[in-house]
Please model this.
Amino acid sequence: MKKNQILVKEHEIIDSARRFLDVHKGDRHFAFYGPMGVGKTTFIKALCFVLGAKDLVSSPTFAIVNEYYTRDNLSIYHFDFYRIKTIVELLDIGFDEYCQEEAFCFIEWPEKGEELLPDDFIKINLEEQPDGSRVLSF
Model:
């Protein structure tokens, strides 16, 4: 594994999420790239678990954004841009305002609104390996 990569195996996903957050201490905004079924939602669920989310974490495909709260009452915003057709839709939901908060922001399918992503977003690519594990590159 390269320095900017983490191997994620299904049975070790919580440990992988902890390692990822350790590497990115202080970072709050993350954009997850990868094909359908590669595990973006699954990994974000693990991140939310490690962060102490009190709420049920699910894909925001139809809602575009879900908000979860940690045990410390910090906000986590989980976006799914898959159904976004135009940038105007993101502006209408106030996406730029979400990004100005100190909350965690996790985005699936960020390529649909990439021109609105602030510079502080960490871009993560997920890739499935032949053995079924995933590699996160950032």
In short: The helical segments are 13-23, 40-51, 87-92, 95-98. The mean pLDDT is 93. DSSP finds four helices and seven strands in the chain. The first strand starts at residue 5 and ends at 8.
